[in-house]
Design goal:
The complex is a heterodimer of chains A (659) and B (100).
Chain A (H helix, E strand, L loop, with lengths): L6 H20 L2 H27 L6 E11 L2 E9 L1 H24 L6 H20 L3 H19 L6 H34 L7 H7 L8 H17 L8 H4 L5 H10 L4 H8 L1 H5 L2 H22 L5 H21 L3 H35 L20 H15 L5 H15 L5 H26 L18 H16 L7 H6 L6 H6 L18 H28 L3 H8 L1 H8 L4 H47 L7 H21 L1
Antiparallel strand pairs in A: 1-2
Helix pairs in contact in A: 1-2, 1-4, 2-3, 2-4, 3-4, 3-10, 3-15, 3-19, 4-5, 5-6, 5-10, 6-8, 8-11, 8-13, 10-15, 13-14, 13-18, 14-15, 14-17, 14-18, 15-16, 15-17, 15-19, 16-17, 16-18, 16-19, 17-18, 17-22, 18-22
Chain B lengths: L3 H21 L3 H26 L3 H31 L13
The chains are: A mainly alpha (659), B mainly alpha (100).
Amino acid sequence: MYDKLWLIPLFPFIGFLINGLLGKKIKNEKVIGSIATISIFCSFLVSCKYFFQLLGDNQKVHEVIISSWINAGPLNVDWGFLLDPLSGLMMMNVSGLATLITLYSIGYMHNEDGYYRFFSYMNLFAFAMLMLVLGNNALVMFVGWEGVGLCSYLLIGFYFEKQSASDAGKKAFVMNRVGDFGFLLGLFMLFWSLGQHGVWTVRFTEIAASTQLLENGGIIVTIITLCFFLGATGKSAQIPLYTWLPDAMEGPTPVSALIHAATMVTAGVYMIARMNGLFAMAPETMMVIAIVGASTALFAATIGLAQNDIKRVLAYSTVSQLGYMFLAMGVGAFGAGIFHLLTHAFFKACLFLGSGSIIHGMHHAYHHAHLNDDPQDMRNMGGLRKKMPITFITFLLSTLAISGIPFFSGFFSKDEILWWSFASPRGHWVLWLMGALAALMTAFYMFRLVFMTFFGEQKTDARAKDHIPESPFVITLPLMILAALATVGGLLGIPHVLGKALGHVPNLIENFLAPVFEHTQHLHSLHAHGTAATEFTFMGISVGIATVGIGIAWIMYCKNPQLPAQIVAAFPKLHRAVFNKWYIDEFYDAVIVNPTKRAGTILWQLFDARFVDGIVNGVACLVKGLGRTLRYTQSGYTHSYAMSMVIGVVAIIAVYVFN
Amino acid sequence: MITITHYMAVSAILFSIGTIGVLTRRNAIVIFMCVELMLNAVNLTFIALSSHLGNMDGQVFVFFIMTVAAAEAAVGLALMIAFFRNSDSIDVEDFSLLKW
């Protein structure tokens, strides 16, 4: 039934091979772009086929083993794929968005150096990400996990001749390594501790079936899940490992949209959802996850308030929204977290692509006017809604979605997370408050961005401002599709209370995901803490918060544009701290990076240069000295050699005879 | 009556003469001849002991040694000719190119 599942990652891999090996010779941009887009689109078509087949199937979990990979003692690992509602949703999400964004890149990357390189990396990324979500065991997932990390590094450093871009790539890679180390340790411990009970396995289905062998809430399960969570913080940019994501904006904008907003950074969320049974057994870990998620949501949102680079605002917004997903995971609302992952993928990809469209237009105008201004600085924009109408409308729809305006997708998913953060048995009103504050800031900074970019008077340099074009169709088409999804995507997950009020509208996504989260149902029995009335109240509060945030943004950036400057003048220190990202990068440099470098220097100068080199050079000196002494025996005279042979023979015979 | 002891003595004397010749002479051809002398001293021992012990193994050995000696003579003489062409001398004192 599902035995051709391996085609899904195979297509982008073929695209990667063609463009990677032959792209330099092909040269024609249209051909390269088409190969990349078609290969990932084929994979999307196959995904659709299997996804709809799964929808109509009564059995929801299917494993397909391709071949054996490792057989060593009790460790048996296969190349195998797992299709269940969770991986089905993720594969649709990944292949669909990758198709749209690759199509968009054809227009966006026009005339860039290394055009073929970009598209082959994009395909390689799609391959690795699909391996990650479809792998049936933790090792195949880890292959994908490392693969997406590699592609992220390659694509962040795409403009490698720029120092800041290659630095950002290295930073992302190193910080991800810290997380991967946690992932691996967690995996080793899980394998070993399940093995103590006779189950040697890395397969997800077997892990899920045998977690009850471990002590519920015990120290082992807590350590394992904390290690896995460390892996997730690295990949998904959570406190303390989040600082790489804003810097990753050095990459081209489609990369930011695909990898650093919609797919790769959600890998950590996916991984936790995949092992939800294990995580549910460790309440301490869940608490840590919820706290980290809520703090990240709040903290990143504060930084987003004061940034002027359009992509940086979106980057901090991504970190903040990922925090929401982890908050959902932490309070046991796995379905809500995955739902937010999905809606966030729609609206954030649309926002990033929209910002790319703006940057593309600004860059074009500056290029036309021979200016070297920064095309990403929002202070140079304003009034773009007339210049770029399609970009404006799609951007606005997505902004409404992320702000949580009712009936846009973000409203349903964010509201569900906020509700569970309060109502779940593992929730707490403090978590809710942090999430709500973050939602207020989100609405504010997103509308600040919209007002600064699209409204008001045009602040672009006079020589350039009449040359800002609307982007071509390959760019606006993905924008329109994504904006439509961002608008209506939330209808997949209408909350129960609202569904009941409207007359038995089911929560499609929750019902669909139910088989995956059946072991953790007890964590979100509906009436744990509150009644329908309470839930409606909370919903009303969320909407109120979003409206207030938008209102403040409108007052500050539309009605009274002098106000922000006055506020900055009133609190100069606070503004400087926020503007400089609370000096977290400087803090890490001082506490971790520089001491590590210093320790490295000391080890190099003392241990390596003195001790290791000392041993090597000492041996060399010894041999040299011996050689200098002994070379006098090699006189070159045949007689002396013959003499020494005779003496030797006589000596041997003497020993033989006289013994 | 010539006993095995006589054969042994002659052989030892021949071998010693050969050894001293190798150690003291400088002319490569003479050294070469001395080496042949040593080989033949050994051959003599083999044959004498073979006859004395009534065992044919020694004689077989001698054939091998003679064959090797003939081959060695061919190679050795060729080497010396090559060397003489290079340096107009076959004095072993001049054969010291490979020393330190």
